Batch of 4 targets.
Target 1
Amino acid sequence: MSIPFRNKYTIGKSLYFFIRVILVGFSIFYFSSSSLAQELEPRSLTNLPVGMNFAIAGYSYAQGNILLDPALPIEDLNAKLHAALIAYMRSVRIFGLAGKVDVVLPWASGDWTGKYTGIDTSRSVAGMGDARIRLSINFLGAPALKKEEFPGYNPTKISGISLQIMAPTGQYDYERLINLGSNRWAFRPQWGFSRYIKNWIVETYLSTRFFTKNNNFLDGNELRQKPFSAIKVHAIRSFPRNWWIALDAGYGFGGKTFVNGEERDSRISTIRLGLTLAIPVGMHHTFRLTGITGIRLERGSDFDAVALTYQYWWIK
């Protein structure tokens, strides 16, 4: 694909800069299961030329104390979870600002064992998870630029906000405790700030997830959950040939649950640690390998996971 750039830049320099920037667009999607109460998503703030499109496919495997709905009051949980996703993202102009729209459709298969109110419970199930759609807008340091304007763009600081909506489209059986879908809506606003320092990018994010009620929890019971908040930090290092690596960390807290108005001892407090490696292959293709571990402090998931993601990009 030929890409027109302004004449004052050489074709080689322009292509190198352009590829280096767009390669990070796929990192909006990371192991999209809602079981990761605070997803680690390095480079979500990166600015892209208006009109860029990304098709993404991914696979992940996790083992440990992990649920697709973090509100479930299950004890002594052990699970093995295979998850896959397809996703689409497009960079857009929103009131003159740079923005992105992305949609994620997850599928999962898992085996769970655990206890609920002292009674052993287990399940093996496969099916679709809850779909996600997100709108992101960068309001500082990331103007909405066409592809021919992009080679002259040199970011130093970027700040932006996003709103992700999780729809109750996943597999759900009201007679079973463990499901792939949550049977409720969730909304996650997020604010982020990134600082560029030579070959490094340092990012910080603050987010809170709000939940609607599940009015059909185990044969018609009502499940309600308080908001869940997260703080995330990423340190990203770029290397020659457009490779990059990110060290990821996050802390999540809150999300106490109530069943029929009765408070459960379920306040979530967890740490996430991750390592992400991006490997470009040719002009339009990128693979990303991610490892992550979850550490439970009070309640929440405690697990190890790996993920492989592939992306293809085009622009028009």
Target 2
Amino acid sequence: MKAVVLLSGGIDSSTTLALALRQGFNACALSVDYGQRHRQELEAAKRIARSLGASLHRIVSLDLRAFGASALTADLPVPKGRDAALMSSEIPSTYVPARNTILLSLALAWAEVLESGDVFIGANAVDYSGYPDCRPEYLEQFERLANLATKAGVEKRVCYRIHAPLLRSTKAEIIRIGTEAGVDFSLTRSCYDPSPQGLACGACDACILRRRGFEGAGIPDPTRYA
């Protein structure tokens, strides 16, 4: 059974790939170079795909800097030092307009070509930065869309399923799950604003959630911080 797994190179997507492989899927990893300032995550995705044994790994280029409006795709400051309450109460400037919709659409297109009905995404609705496209109701509606908007779905040759196995897990739980599934987290990258040398800033939302996750899991954090 083939499945398309969205792979950013971070903790959640890497663990999701490991879980898809554990479930017996022939996992085809898909990463997207969308002009993100933290493009170092794409090199991490390559390392993870090789390490875990994805059968294929594609990197698609789609430059969302043409639209901007995000701290990840435009010359805007990355928020630093936000506390947990603030992360869960407002959508930060690192939100990329419609990003998960775009990524899932690309994954769906490849899945249709591969004649696969399974798409995996590392979306998380517990420890995250308030992004609207990480919520369960969004993923449920995208799954409905997938079956309405594709030739394979309309012809009933494929019933598309959007798998988000980590949707209701905390970051600490994800790190424990990933460790048990064989993920080498030293290969992953999370920082939104890394140094040119690849050091994590330690203060953006992604770094804070990552560090807190390792502390909660009781597992040493292999991240190299500035």
Target 3
Amino acid sequence: MRGAVPRRPSFPLALAFLAALCAPAASAAVIWNKVYSGFSSPVEITNAHDGSQRIFVVQQSGKIRIIKGGAVLATSFIDLGATGLDAIAAGGEQGLLGIAFHPQYATNGQFYVNYTRKSDGATVIARFLASAGNADVADPSSGTILLTIAQPEANHNGGAVKFGPDGFLYIGMGDGGGGNDQHGTIGNGQDKSTLLGKILRIDVDNGGANPYAIPPGNPYASGVGGRREIFAIGVRNPWRMSFDRATGDFWFGDVGQGAVEEVDMLPAGTGAGTNFGWRIMEGLHCTGLGGTCPDARLTQPILEYGHALGCSVTGGYRYRGTASPALAGYYLYGDYCSGRIWGATKSGGGPWQTVELKSAGINVSTFGEDQAGEIYVASLGTGVIYRISAQ
């Protein structure tokens, strides 16, 4: 989500992206199904991949709700405010921001959350366990803090946590807030001595006496040249991210500064050490904030759009469900400010092309995927969840 930061005049859109916007509209008629309501500031929708078919909805205030058998359960799965872990500060871009269920959740009951600590605004990554006696309720006393990251500002917290196909936990960290990545001499995004402005990757299964281990494929796993937890650098505010369940490709939307929103993708099994460019670049454009630009060593986004179309990208999912064959393979994403929903696809080795599927008129806070691969989207302000389908 977007923080209150100064904006610069918009850069011209890249010609390739203008061509993509002019691409023929999808032949499918997108259907907007209001399926659940009554949530308070929903910021993530997911499933536990445990065969239960339950949908979990993360509320920014600290509660996680369950949708089971088509109904929203009255009792929360967990309330982070009742865990005794100094959780949580909620409001603006702070709060309970993400959840990830362990790949073996069905047998070990482990899930991981990303939240803002109440006392000082720090980002906390913590592990909890499902209750032994009731699968619909977590054990609030089971919390273990894995990682704490100080935040100099209240915005650009990132918030996403996801397990990759490699079994490691990926964490999206914003640049620390304020405008123009203002902290430090080169900004946090390009500073490898800080965890801010990065995609992190940790091994939660092999820490021994430690809460986590470092995957040996991390670019600074030895501790030389950068923090060991870093997987990729140069991001501004990676709010929502996902892994393609069919290919393992890694996707995220990186919220821009004053001109451009971007979508980034790394093919499965690649990307360790990637530099996504911020604050040297915003999308495909040089910022003038330092560094060499253009620079072939900086990885460019696969999609971008200017602020005539929105102001805060919400990353989504590639559609891999079966109910809407017309959407097969589309990457669905949106904008928090304008409520636009897009679908991106590509043919062969050509560029990604995107079409507007819906002007939803809501604050698009998150997309989510159920166990069958159907896609949902949430409205932050109204607390309504919609299912996206097509004919």
Target 4
Amino acid sequence: MALAGCSKPPQLQRLAPADVVLAFGDSLTYGTGVGEQEGYPAQLAQLIGRRVISAGVPGEVTAHALQRLPAALDEYSPRLLLLCIGGNDFLRQLGKRQAAANVREMVRLARARQIDVVLIGTPEPGLTVTPPEFYAEIAEQFAVPYQGKVIGYVLRHAELKSDPIHPNAKGYRLIAERLAELLRERGALAAGK
């Protein structure tokens, strides 16, 4: 146990100025509830000074996202994948087991292409509004950075939401800020960038 506490968190390769970041997911990535420039990918691009492609499809479940991901990786050739998917599986009660298998396969596909991944946990509906444990388990399995708190935080605060399940511009800004902070902490960006 003592050794586990001393292990270095998963690191990312430094993003060059021309590198592409692909934000991939459902309505939370699409930016449902706000204008195009207010979603987290657009706000993150401003914060980190890199091109961030928004590849979010409202209502998409993990099975469809898994089918769509290879073509998106081919089209954009990203250096980094921000993966935020699963909420629609939970809302439609499709089962966490299949969602976990699909998310695991998406991370595996990206890593097989030498693309860095940041996994973003999507909360389950309920009192705690927290992501299922499988996100953290997958992040640990593949040694990829994991942001498991920010979306649940946003969805627990009415002043950060445009509707019961989507952030407003302020909520998306907070997501972008937390992701930028994670990218700096894990080496993708120089400190202060």
